[in-house]
Please model this.
Amino acid sequence: MNLSLRDVRHDLGRFLLTAVGLGLLLAIVLAITGIYNGMVADATALPDSLGADLWIVQRDTRGPFAELSRVALDLEDRARAVPGVLRARAYLSHTLQRERPGGGLLRFTAVGLSWPLDRGERLLISEGRPIREPHFEVVADRSLGLPLGERLRLGRDAYAVVGLTQGMLSSGGDPLLFFTLADAQRVQYEAANEAVRLEREARAARVRTSDLGRDLTNVRRAQGAAAGIPALGPPQVAAVMVDLAPGADPDRVQASLRAWADVTVYTAEEQRTLLLRGVIDRARRQIGLFRGLLVVISTILMGLIIYTMTIDKLHSIALLKLLGARRSVILGLILEQALLLGLGAYAIALLLAATTFAHFPRRVVVGDADRLGLLAVVAAISVGASLVGIRKALAADPNQVLAS
Model:
């Protein structure tokens, strides 16, 4: 007869209630771990799917994912001329927040793809197709809530949703919406009619006060669209992605690009490291501290619970000693109950994870290594907590039974 199981059946309700409480704590520990894993997956989903070998960014910056970066669009052509470069693609991203037609907020990160070199074939498209037309087609993530074929109006234009991705989020957790580069620039820099008119008037006023104003042609040109003024370049982009040709020497290509004084070059792995260490490093440390505190709290609570359960059984333990029970029997009783309590709480935590984590607003990624790690922690907590009860049980005096 197993004494620990018999004792659990004797007070099953209390045991289950305690297991549920500890299971909730362990589920929070597992959720925090999964939230961090989800943050890493969200932050790296875009650079991993774009698949660039090198990233060319603004000089002395850490790239478009860690901080603001602005480079000229003609950097694409400069990069293509470097030996060993197969293709170069411009990259642009910015966060937008709009009102949904039916009410509510529509927040997303717009990503510009260098069409037609990049149509979005590398994206994790689960439904629909990549971008085929140079304008007014987008690929959206499912979490944005836009169905396939929906027409999204941004500014003066409407964009048709032609493809849906799964799990493509920014490092901030916002869904990604992929445009062609020209459309992304149009959405980012589009201004109200009155703002455009005032800018043109201010531009013309500046020309009139300079030597260029002596020629009325220059004044009329300043009052027109910015694209018609040769001195004004096209809008800048955040970075240029470089794909190396098969057999090309990466070090030689990097050395050629890094010789340029106006840019900084990172490999894909360096860009990924900068993203993880810069954007989510503080969140990682805070989550790790919170997880450690919960483990300590779980250990203390389980120790108190085992101690209380041992106090309730002191008379029975003393009687066992009086009857000549071996010390190993008493030790096994306390240790097995602690392990049963820990395993029960662990099972409840796994059940909660399977049923609730999918409904969290941000992605929660829990792998087998995380589950096994939590199991090891639970086993360690159970053994450590049982030592408190074992110490009290060994101090039980069998003569108390005779005295009572």
Summary: The chain has 13 helices and ten strands.
